[in-house]
């Protein structure tokens, strides 16, 4: 079954075609350049550019594979979380294609896409820990089995990609600053500055994260001036690593699970990959770089998992939502049974 996945939760327009858990083709367009002068994403510009570029991205994807759109067996689209205007573009295109081609459609949680991105290049046996680190989220969960996740903790303030981008913006780097700052982090001394990494002791909160304190400390150093940029950024990435590793170790101590999949845009960090892989007693896994940041392939892969198990969305009901929790997707139905899944 060839599944077409559509991802438009932020400024990217990406599509992928997956068959038997392999990504056959993927295309991505970004409106990054149009947001440059504003220092962050302008939602209306992102949505307008997505509408504009959609036919070209789809055409490119289909032509690369030398197939026709009618050869697709099903569609899968990100419904949230993300920018509603951008998500709506993807959802409306997917709805229209599914209706006209008379093919099944499934609406997917973007985070589930990141969780599944690990399978394109790795074989891991369940259960394992999954750490989602992206521009909008920092979540630690146990991936128990296909489509089964146990959320353990998340950030109570900024996501780790968010503080990297905010500090980058303060230092006049172009948004998103992750890739550029990651290069600096590799050159500096990670132990030069010591930043406090908060720990949560309360029950049910012990796996949460907080990054806003680190951000404030760094912004204060920048304000005072006279700092070494490489050492500062290296110490920032090290503090992020420490904070993430503290909770991974806690989960290991209570469950014995020492396999960890790290996904989401920040998992593309070479600094973090290197330092995680140096951890003895743990097995770390990462998606290939093209599947770390937002992409249509991962959405197609989750779509395939649901569709092959008989789940579907109703094309008349499916909608875009700005916030959406993992395990609580109101637009997925078990075919022939009715009723909500999740
Ligand atoms: O998953 P993603 O593409 O979009 C969201 O779902 O948010 O993640 C984007 C985030 C941005 O904060 C970006 O700065 C960060 O991923 N990022 C990186 C790297 N490449 C992208 N952070 C650190 N190192 C990188 N190489
Ligand atoms: Zn993402």
Report on this structure.
With 342 residues, the protein is an alpha/beta fold. The protein folds into two domains: 2-114 and 293-334, Nucleotidyltransferase, domain 5 (2-Layer Sandwich), CATH 3.30.420.40; 123-286, ATPase, nucleotide binding domain (Nucleotidyltransferase, domain 5, 2-Layer Sandwich), CATH 3.30.420. It has eleven helices and twelve strands. A five-stranded mixed beta sheet has the order 3-2-1-4-5, with helices on both faces. A five-stranded mixed beta sheet has the order 8-7-6-9-10, with helices on both faces. The chain is globular, with a radius of gyration of 20 Å. The two termini are 25 Å apart. The model has no long low-confidence stretch (mean pLDDT 95). The structure holds 5'-O-[(R)-(carboxyoxy)(hydroxy)phosphoryl]adenosine and zinc ion (ZN).
């Amino acid at each position: 079954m060839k599944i077409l996945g559509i991802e438009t939760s932020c400024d990217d327009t990406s599509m992928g075609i997956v068959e038997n858990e392999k990504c056959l083709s993927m295309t991505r367009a970004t409106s990054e350049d149009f947001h440059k002068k504003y220092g962050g994403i302008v939602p209306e510009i992102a949505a307008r550019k997505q509408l504009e570029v959609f036919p070209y991205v789809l055409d490119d994807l289909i032509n690369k594979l030398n197939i026709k759109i009618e050869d697709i067996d099903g569609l899968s689209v990100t419904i949230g979380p993300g920018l509603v205007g951008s998500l709506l573009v993807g959802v409306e295109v997917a709805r229209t294609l599914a209706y006209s081609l008379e093919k099944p459609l499934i609406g997917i949680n973007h985070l589930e896409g990141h969780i599944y991105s690990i399978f394109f290049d790795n074989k891991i046996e369940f259960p394992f820990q999954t750490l989602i680190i992206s521009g909008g989220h920092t979540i630690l969960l146990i991936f128990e089995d296909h489509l089964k996740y146990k959320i353990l903790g998340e950030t109570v303030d900024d996501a780790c990609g968010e503080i990297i981008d905010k500090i980058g913006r303060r230092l006049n780097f172009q948004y998103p600053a992750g890739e550029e700052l990651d290069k600096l982090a590799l050159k500096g001394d990670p132990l030069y500055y010591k930043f406090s990494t908060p720990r949560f002791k309360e029950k049910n909160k012990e796996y949460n994260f907080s990054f806003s304190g680190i951000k404030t400390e760094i912004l204060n150093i920048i304000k005072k001036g006279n700092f070494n940029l490489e050492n500062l950024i290296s110490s920032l990435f090290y503090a992020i690593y420490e904070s993430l590793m503290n909770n991974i170790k806690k989960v290991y101590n209570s469950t014995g699970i020492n396999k960890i999949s790290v996904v989401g845009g920040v998992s593309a960090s070479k600094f973090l990959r290197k330092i995680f892989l140096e951890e003895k007693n743990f097995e770390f896994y990462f998606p290939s770089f093209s599947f770390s940041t937002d992409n249509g392939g991962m959405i197609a892969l989750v779509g395939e998992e649901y569709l092959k198990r008989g789940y579907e969305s109703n094309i008349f009901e499916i909608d875009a939502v700005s916030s959406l929790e993992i395990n609580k997707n109101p637009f997925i139905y078990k075919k022939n049974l009715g009723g909500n899944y999740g």
